[in-house]
Design a protein that fits this description.
The chain is about 45% helix and about 15% strand. The chain is built from six helices and four strands. Strand 3 and strand 4 form a beta hairpin. Helix 3 packs across helix 4. The longest helix has 17 residues. The N and C termini lie far apart (about 50 Å).
């Protein structure tokens, strides 16, 4: 039984090795985060769109916002100190352009949160945006955050 569980985990992580423009991947993230990343790119592929690259900076902004909402018991795009997702992305050191943010709370699995986002026009638009080319995902205790960005072209 243990061998089967380890095999399933290994197969799940294979879908999380998609590299970003700088060779980054979500492989060092939680299984939930990697599954959301994989599901986002499956949705994009189904629409004929290129896959998002993984951004550690966007992931940091997303993770810190998920942790803050959880720790301080609130649910908002704006932090309690008034910062927007753009402020949080800039503070993470991201050198591209912040493009959007999706948040959710309460969904028990990556599949559930993706279904919720895809059923919402605004969230779906962020996931399928042609103006973004990178994503970071954060997760803690059923608080989910996606942050989207447009990487600066190489050499800028």
């Amino acid at each position: 039984m243990r061998t089967i569980a380890l095999s399933v985990l290994a197969l799940s992580l294979l879908g999380c090795s998609d590299a970003g423009p700088g060779g980054e991947s979500c492989a060092d993230q939680t299984l939930e985060v990697c599954q959301v990343f994989r599901l986002v790119n499956e949705e994009r592929a189904a629409q004929g769109l290129p896959a998002y690259g993984w951004s550690p900076d966007l992931a940091l902004a997303a993770q810190l916002h998920a942790e803050d909402m959880h720790a301080n018991d609130y649910f908002s795009h704006d932090s309690q100190d008034g910062r927007s997702f753009v402020d949080r992305v800039n503070a993470s050191g991201y050198d591209g352009a912040p493009r959007g943010e999706n948040i959710a709370r309460g969904q028990r699995s990556p599949e559930q949160v993706m279904m919720s986002w895809m059923e919402s026009d605004g969230h779906r638009a962020n996931i399928l945006s042609e103006g973004s080319n990178e994503i970071g995902v954060g997760y803690v205790d059923f608080h989910w955050v996606q942050v989207f960005g447009r990487a600066a072209p190489m050499g800028e």
